[in-house]
């Protein structure tokens, strides 16, 4: 008996076409909507378009809409898996948002394309077929939100876009893919140890993110305070260090109850409070800064945003980011 897959389109390169002038642009009609017949042998497809946006246009509001749509559809109908087509620029952020805000055992698989629908070697339909194959695979259950592209399956928590143009852009630094997609099977070779879930019903809080650099000045943190952000993520140097010039700004934010989350701007390794000098991670940790374990800046920003918007009792952010 075939499984039922909810296929949701959101736009992105996978649904675009290149003009005669060489500009890749959205189509008035999503060309993928004509390709669902290629999926009939794999599953019963319930297809819909949530929106048709280039991924840089997607905000946390669209992510929340997508999350609510999935929960509603799964509650109303027997759905065995969800596949989402998405632009690659922010695909990892939407995937991680869904990872933290859905608590489903069925697979949720995101996919996209690096070449538009009418380019030579277009990879969209191929990736879509692979994503549906992953979603119907029984071993994909209870593994969290997944990203399937270019014959690989990655966890939403680990994967990131690493190339501006390569079809092999999605990688999981340090961890590697969770599975491989062959002509005949999906080969899963490891699974997540734990997952986190946060119940939210809105996104009223705001979180900023800043990349730390040599000679950074404190007035950037003053702007975070002046603009009344509810939290900030800093992509720190090395293991999570900052120039001494910004320490006072960090201290000022923490004293006012504004959480400061530290990650590393390096994409390998884990940020930790190690160095005790002025601006070192240990000093910042002693001031009350929180280190995010094993995620990049854009995901730490979403995690803090979701944590601050949790329904019910406030979340313990230090434990949340461990």
UniProtKB/TrEMBL annotation:
Record Gene3D superfamilies: 3.40.50.40, L-asparaginase, N-terminal domain
Keyword Hydrolase listed: yes
Record keywords, A-Z: Hydrolase
Domain L-asparaginase N-terminal, first and last residues per copy: 5-193
UniProt enzyme class: hydrolase
Pfam family, one: Asparaginase
Domain called Asparaginase/glutaminase C-terminal: residue spans: 206-321
Domain of life, source organism: Bacteria
EC annotation from Swiss-Prot or TrEMBL: 3.5.1.1
Hydrolase in keyword set: yes
Active site: 13, 88
Catalytic activity: L-asparagine + H2O = L-aspartate + NH4(+)
Coiled-coil positions: none
Entry's family note: Belongs to the asparaginase 1 family.
Record's protein name: asparaginase
